[in-house]
């Protein structure tokens, strides 16, 4: 059996990871809300799913901290009531786990469906993957909440629960679906970013941000191995603490990455203001005139971008690159722009005629 010092070190690790991700979750979520409500003025399924996921993930971090305190009390003072509370909170944490991952997949799925709305294979795959994940999560939640099945069973308790075998099957299916989903969505997002009309200095940070999804998948793999590995009584507590740590890493990194992914409009606004102040000092009125022309061009070509539902910057650039544009659409954009600029040309000719008179 582990000595209390080693156990306390493991509990400290769980508490530190939970606190770190709680801070990251809160900050990234608040920034996401600011971007969606104040900058883009939009709030859709992806955002509502993230609200649900954020509440549960923050609760998961708090439950991990509190249950660790009860475990510490048991190992310090031998209080059996504390370990009973700890086991109940661990069971609740397991139930939260599946709901968090299901909510995260719904949020990411809704986001990527807007990017790949013109690609049938990707949209069908996303629907199937998210749908299966949600169904398995509901079944998983039922086993975790209302049966005697445990996430990891101590040696002395094996064979006591009649539901354990069925629960293990659901656990295996859900874990594999979750890992596949993380890798699939991450690779799909990175590939779309890489072919988008974006500068390299923008692509690289965005791809690194999306790669946090792979970090979540790697944490899920490590957690899965720890859970399926048979353990002796002397290392059971150590493995259980490691499972708790990797669970927090898996969920926290996935949710934080999903929130940070939505912050590009905020960065674009900040950079635009910085450049605007700097440019105004040197160019003055000519810069404003150039920006007006660019704005006119963006307005003229707006009909081509309606399928992004206003997902500014990121979705516009990605979809504009990956969606083939027909000659008819190009002609429509040129005609629209020419009509938009016609009044200015007429004004110019009128001015020239007046000057000659």
From TrEMBL:
Transmembrane segments: 16-35, 47-66, 94-116, 128-149, 169-195, 207-228
Xref: InterPro entries: Rhodopsin_dom_fungi (IPR049326), SAT4-like (IPR052337)
UniProt main location, coarse: membrane
Keywords: Membrane, Transmembrane, Transmembrane helix
Region of interest: Disordered: 316-357
KW Transmembrane helix (keyword) present: yes
Protein's cellular compartments: Membrane
Domain of life of the source: Eukaryota
Positions with biased composition (Basic and acidic residues): 327-337
Membrane topology qualifier: Multi-pass membrane protein
Cross-referenced Pfam families: Fung_rhodopsin
One cellular-component annotation, GO: membrane
Composition bias, Polar residues: 338-349
Domain Rhodopsin: 31-268
Family according to the record: Belongs to the SAT4 family.
Protein's recorded name: Rhodopsin domain-containing protein
Organism: Elsinoe australis
């Amino acid at each position: 059996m582990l000595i209390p010092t080693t156990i306390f070190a493991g509990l400290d690790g769980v508490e530190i990871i939970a606190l770190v991700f709680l801070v990251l979750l809160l900050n990234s979520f608040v920034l996401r809300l600011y971007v969606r409500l104040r900058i883009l003025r939009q709030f859709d399924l992806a955002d509502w799913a993230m609200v649900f996921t954020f509440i549960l993930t923050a609760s998961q971090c708090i439950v991990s901290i509190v249950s660790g305190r009860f475990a510490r009390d048991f190992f310090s003072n031998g209080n059996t009531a504390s370990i009973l509370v700890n086991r109940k909170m661990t069971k609740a944490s397991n139930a939260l786990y599946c709901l968090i991952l299901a909510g995260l997949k719904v949020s990411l799925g809704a986001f990527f469906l807007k990017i790949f709305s013109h690609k049938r294979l990707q949209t069908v795959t996303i629907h199937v993957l998210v749908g299966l994940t949600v169904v398995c999560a509901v079944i998983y939640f039922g086993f975790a909440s209302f049966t005697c099945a445990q996430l990891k069973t101590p040696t002395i308790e094996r064979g006591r629960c009649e539901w354990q075998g069925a629960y293990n099957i659901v656990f295996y299916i859900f874990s594999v679906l979750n890992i596949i989903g993380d890798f699939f969505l991450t690779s799909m997002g990175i590939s779309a970013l890489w072919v988008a009309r974006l500068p390299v200095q923008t692509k690289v940070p965005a791809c690194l941000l999306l790669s946090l999804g792979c970090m979540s998948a790697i944490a899920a793999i490590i957690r899965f191995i720890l859970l399926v590995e048979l353990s002796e009584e002397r290392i059971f507590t150590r493995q259980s603490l490691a499972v708790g740590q990797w669970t927090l890493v898996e969920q926290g990194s996935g949710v934080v990455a999903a929130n940070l992914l939505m912050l590009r409009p905020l960065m674009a606004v900040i950079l635009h203001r910085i450049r605007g102040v700097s440019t105004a000092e040197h160019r003055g009125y000519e810069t404003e005139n150039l920006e007006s022309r660019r704005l006119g061009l963006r307005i003229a070509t707006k009909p081509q971008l309606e399928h992004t539902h206003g997902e500014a910057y990121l979705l516009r650039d990605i979809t504009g690159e990956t969606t083939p544009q027909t000659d008819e659409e190009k002609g429509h954009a040129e005609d629209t722009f020419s009509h938009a600029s016609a009044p200015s040309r007429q004004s110019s000719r009128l001015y020239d005629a007046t000057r000659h008179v």
